[in-house]
Structure formats: structure tokens, C-alpha cells
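Co-fold these.
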Amino acid sequence: MQVSGGDLQRLRQQNTLNSLRVLREARAPLTLTELVAQTGLSRASVGDVVAELQQRGWIAEVDPTPGTLGRPAKRYRFRTDVGHVLGIDIGVHKVLAVVTDLAGRVIASGRVAVDRHTARHERLEAVWRAIDAALVAAGRAASDLWGVTAGSTGVVNREGLVTRVHDLPDWAGVELAGHLGQRLPCPITIENDSKLAALAEQRLGVAAGVQDLVYLHVGRRPGAALILNGRLHHGFSGATGEVGLMEVTGWRTMAGHLEGCRAAVGASPEEAARLVFDAARAGDREAQAAVDTYAHHLALGTAAMVLTLDPELVVLGGGFSRSADVLLPALNRALEPHCVRVPDIRPSTLGEECVALGGACLALDDVDERLFSLEGAILDPAAPQGVS
Amino acid sequence: MQVSGGDLQRLRQQNTLNSLRVLREARAPLTLTELVAQTGLSRASVGDVVAELQQRGWIAEVDPTPGTLGRPAKRYRFRTDVGHVLGIDIGVHKVLAVVTDLAGRVIASGRVAVDRHTARHERLEAVWRAIDAALVAAGRAASDLWGVTAGSTGVVNREGLVTRVHDLPDWAGVELAGHLGQRLPCPITIENDSKLAALAEQRLGVAAGVQDLVYLHVGRRPGAALILNGRLHHGFSGATGEVGLMEVTGWRTMAGHLEGCRAAVGASPEEAARLVFDAARAGDREAQAAVDTYAHHLALGTAAMVLTLDPELVVLGGGFSRSADVLLPALNRALEPHCVRVPDIRPSTLGEECVALGGACLALDDVDERLFSLEGAILDPAAPQGVS
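Predicted complex below.
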């Protein structure tokens, strides 16, 4: 069989990209010997590839471990500091922007408080202020960003349009991607906030490595999101995890069982649930009964998803998950009668940065896809953000 | 960068496998020019690859279209006749075995009637008789098979063990793969029957090309299966689509609303539903009300899955789907109040071969995976069944 010059050129580029991907996905720096084993390339080819990648700035040699006897083998790592992405959480009560490196580590963030009465144009201004603050804190310009993902409350369709919102009357239909694109010259994705929270937990949080999970957002407005086969599941119109729309679950009104409790009298709606969980923890019978009723309804919608999908894990996120020590046992008890196997349920560990972090994770997925699907053409680190 | 002899050898094998895959996936025979375009290889390389594949027996030249003016370009197709797989449906009332070619076309089949009182060892004997009949009819030996998948009623776990069965008291725990492996010297997979029916509809039936769908098995014992991102979804323990376990859906008892109808008096349980659907079609008010009540419950479980997953399509399969002209409008009406978007619902088109066909499809997936993941080593058509 003949091999043309073009074929050879393609082979070289493929070897370079494959080596870069192996280094990108490695959990620790790799020696040349390890690279040979993991790429299947010859020692000589790996030497050439590493020299090229180092010269272009994609990888760096790691200092030898101090105290190692003899001459240690050189080790190389992917340089996660050559690029940055931006994750944004546009919520009812806050806008949070985080700048992360290519490992998803937060370099800097900016936060602006808003509320349910903030008008659309004011909320959009708050988004810019949060972004600017995060960029200033990171010492970066908008042109340094390789990708941006913003999470919004409401249903977000395939085209990134917010199609339905319960909490913010003037937010549906907002053209977020177009708006952000005016000043951010890189690929921009819009996604539902619970979906991003689920992704963050799977990449960086309590669900690290789990392939199939249901993320439950428990708060005044409950929601859910799915990770299936390790990836965010969107559904046909972006409306996955909407079991709360079934009257029979009682999801629409279940927070009222907590807010109507004696322990919550006089508290703001935002504070009420926490006070009831506190009272239940302290032994207040009425509060415990309210938590059980709430858990009964939460379990109905959760069981619908668990019985449909048989997931490995359920992650409990959202404001009420801060009282997981009280809520989780009640939810477990309430699920038992419905399920053959109640899956493991764990409270979120990422806290209030969850959605913005998930945005950074999704932006990084997109960066990797662009980097490693260029039909064999390896770019310099200064170039990737221009790739569309 | 250096390119070693081993790298070159690997490149050649990769090119051969990629070309074979392009021909395998093509919907029509391809010319050399089309192969060049679709593989990205040079004309000379494609010429070499095609000669090698033809000589090994993997591809064949297609006779030129009669009536074509001038000298038509040679066209090549993947030879779907070089290998065969076996799909088996082990149901409550029948065992059906089909032998298909590598395109999933049924070459021959064998069928044995059983019933709910057939003991485990008798059912296993019936499986062998159906397999033997299919092989005899196909003019093949067990050693000609490249893969086998058997579908069983009940929950089938990741290891292929039947863990829970409602209809057949002595069937749970049956070691199907080990049993079949005694006489079938090729890879064997065991799967739940509804899951295989869903796969068949997605590959060969009414859901061709749809990426996300819910398959509803409507019959005396309702069930469901999921195709997500184009692949069968198993869940953590194989128990997906089990929404019927929620009391609130009424799935366990809903067939009784049909069987208790006046139109069904005196009929066998297997016949009752059909008589009621017939009466409803003819305008019998009581039968229509019974169908509506049945559809109300069917819709509750269906809504749980639809709201969880937001699928593109729901496929209605199983015995009752033969009365889809009556059932489907009732189900649509009953779903409306629960769903933001009622997905498209279509009745199954594959009929009673559905499960066995799905078995053949899954066996073919496995064959392709073995063929195209051999790290570049292309085998002869006589060899693949030996690969494990």
C-alpha cells in the first residue's frame, strides 16, 4: 500500500494531538516512557512530539521530586495556565462570575447582589459588573477568555434561549448569548442553572466520576437535572427533570408545608425553611412533621426520576441542602416504599459557586472539543479562542 | 518528526479499517472517488485498501446500473452476507430465534410456543429447539454465528443475570449466558426484552434515527425502556423504566379496567383487551370509558418518564399497540394536562419479531465494536467470531 506525503503529514499531526490529549487527561505528570506506553508511539516519535509541544507552550517540564535518588526521569504536564474560561451564574438573588484555568480551578470571581424585583436591563448590567470584576481580579482581559458559559434560571432550549421562567417575569426570551457576544469575543453557551450545578458536582464535587446521576435542586422553587453516561442530558427541548409539573407530586406547593410551620412565624420566605429544619433538628414535633410532609412530596417526584433512570446517585443541592442532616434521612425514608433500590443520596459540596463552576466546566468541554477535533492541526496557545 | 516502521504499519491498518467502516456505514455502494472524499486518503491509498479488502472478502464490486451511458465508475459495497448473528426472544408465550445477516435482515427464524406454566428446564429446551430450527432454516451451524443476544422477560442486571420476574416464578436467577455458551461458541449477551424491542424500533422500525425515545410496552404487564443519545440506557442495576412500581400510577392494576368490561365477559385474559378496544372502536360507551381510565393510568407513568427525559418520541409497543387507533388518541388526551410538550407518539411497526430483531441489532453492535477496535488489525471474515 502506498503512503502519500499528505498521509504522513496527517499522521504526524494526529500523533501530536493524541500525545497532547494524553497529557491533558493524565492525573499526574508523565515520563517519556509513560507517554510511549499510553500513545503507542515509538520512543523517537514521542521525543519529537514532546519537544514540539514544549516549544509551542502547551506542556512544561516538571521539577524533579526533591530527595529522589539518582537522576530522575523527566516528567511533563499539560499547562493548565495557558488559557482561561468564564462561568457565570445569573440567579434570582445574585450574579456570580468566576474565571478558571484549564483545570477548572477558580482564579478569581466577581459577585453582584440582585433580587426578584431587579428588572431585566438591570440584571444584565449586573452581569457585566460581575464579569468585569472577575476579569479585573484575575488580571485578564475579555480577549484572554477561550470560552464562556452562563447559567440562567428557567428552561433553556437548544438554541440557548431562555424559554420559560417562573421567578422573573421579564426574563423569558432574553437573548443572553447575543448580549454577551457584544463584548466577549469567544464561543458562548447558555444553559439552565440546575444543569450546570449537576455538571459541576460530577466534575469537581460530590459526584466526581459518577456516570449517571439525578441532581435535585431543593429550595423554594424545586428543580432537577440529569447527568447520563457522564454527560449533561438536555432532552429534545431542554426541559428535562420537570417532574414537578405533575400535580400528583405536589412539588409546586411543597415548600409551603415548611413555611406554614409555627417555627417559621415572622421569618422572611427565604429564612423560613432553615428555621423549620433547625427546629426539627432540635426535636420540635410539628417541625419534624412538616419536614416529613415536605419529604413525602419531594420523594414522589424523585421516585419518578429514579424509577425511570435507575441512577447510581442522587445529589441534593440548592438552599435546603444546607439542612441535609435533617432532610436527607426523611427523604430516604419517604423513597423506600417506591423504589426497589433507593440510590445513594449525597448533599452537594460545592455550595454557592456550583452553577458558575458548572459553567466553567461546560466551557472547558467546548475548549477541549475544539482543541482535539481540528482534523489534526495543532494550534498555539494564543490561537484557540479564535476557533469557532 | 521521525516516523518509524511500526507507525507506518499502524497507519496502513488504520486506513484499511477506516475505509471498511465508511463502506459499512454507507447507505449505498461507493465509488473510489466517494471513498477518497469520505476517508480523506489519497486516491492511490484508497486503491490499495479496496484491493486488499476485496481480496480478503470484506467488500464486493457492485454490478453497474443497467442502462447507464458511457463506462460507469466501479462501486463497492460492504458484504453483509459474510457473517450472521442470532437474536432470541424468550417470552412468556413464545420463544423466537432469528438469524440475520450483518445488515440485520432476517435470513431465517424458528419459533416454539410456550406458556406461563412451562417450567424453567422446558423453556430452556424450547430455546434450543427454536435456535436449532432457525439455524437449520438458515443452512448454518452454531459455529457460523458471530454473536448472540437473548432477550428475556424480567429485570436483567449488568452481568446479564435475570434478577426479577413477575410472570414466571422459576425464571429469576436463570444463568442464560452460561447455558447458551455451552453450545454457542461466540460472544453472548442477555438483555431485557422491552429494551431490545426499543432498540429494534430505533434501528429498523418506527423510531429509525431518533436519538432519545421512551418505548412503552402496553400489554397485560406494562413496561418501558429508554434509548438515550442513540443507545440503550441500562441504568445502574438494569432497572430503568420501572415507573409502574409507583402505586400512584396504577400501572399494576390498570389492565383490569379493560378486563372487567362487559365487552370482555367470557374471554380469556389474553383476548379481553382486544375485545374491549374493538367495542370502543365500534362506539360502545362503557368500553370507551374503560379505555379512557386505562389511558389515564398509562399517562401517569408515561408523564413521569416524559417529564424526566423530554424525549423526542414515545413508541407504543406490546400487544395492546395493535389497537393503537383507539388507544393512542386516548393516551394523547390523558397526557396533555401533565406535559408542557406532549412528544410525538407512534405505534410500533415491527410486530412480534421486535424483541428478537433487537437482539440481532445488539449482537451486531458488538460485532462492529470488535471489528473496528482491534487496534488496527483487520481480520478475515472467517475470524471475527473467535474474538472475545
